[in-house]
Design goal:
The structure is a single chain. Strands 1, 2, 3, 4, 5, 6, 7, 8 and 9 form a 9-stranded mixed beta sheet that branches. This protein is of the alpha+beta class and 147 residues long. The protein is built from 3 helices and 9 strands. The protein has one domain: Electron Transport, Fmn-binding Protein, Chain A (Pnp Oxidase, Chain A).
């Protein structure tokens, strides 16, 4: 049986699971790709720091639909989201996200900071639906949808 949940609750459950999630995207060749990422939330947008020429950036340019699955706990609790992704590389967005949104030091990956890291961009995921699973779904499911 599945029950409704609010997006804030989805975000809270995801935060309690792991800082790591697996992002699924599809390339121009139609082939899927899954990579580990460290997502962070700003309001209802889910953000991921990526490289300008990364597979993630190329895939989203070809197909903006993505899915993400947070690493499950030992007892099988997990969170999945589906949405549409867009890449942002403008300095204004970088400056806003650089401090206060991510829960780790972005300078460790892009030491030039927001103003001097041309190979660093951010992936914004507009979440369209989400699923919270307890014990791989055997302990219950909660769903959220933007519509």
């Amino acid at each position: 049986m599945s029950e409704q949940i609010e997006l804030e609750e989805v975000k809270s459950v995801a935060a309690g699971l792991s800082p790591w999630a697996h992002l699924a995207s599809v390339g121009a060749d139609g082939k899927p790709d899954v990579v580990p990422v460290h997502p962070c939330w700003e309001g209802d947008l889910c953000w991921v720091m990526i490289g300008t020429s990364s597979v993630k950036a190329r895939n989203v340019a070809a197909h903006p639909d993505v899915a993400m699955h947070w690493q499950v706990t030992a007892n099988g609790d997990g969170v999945e989201i589906w949405g549409t992704a867009e890449v942002f590389g403008d300095v204004e967005t970088k400056r806003r996200l650089w401090t206060g949104v991510f829960d780790y030091d972005l300078n460790a990956f892009a030491p030039g900071g927001p103003d001097d890291s041309p190979d660093t961009v951010f992936l914004a995921i507009t979440v369209e639906r989400a699923l919270v699973l307890k014990q791989y779904g055997m302990g219950g499911m909660q769903r959220w949808s933007a519509t």
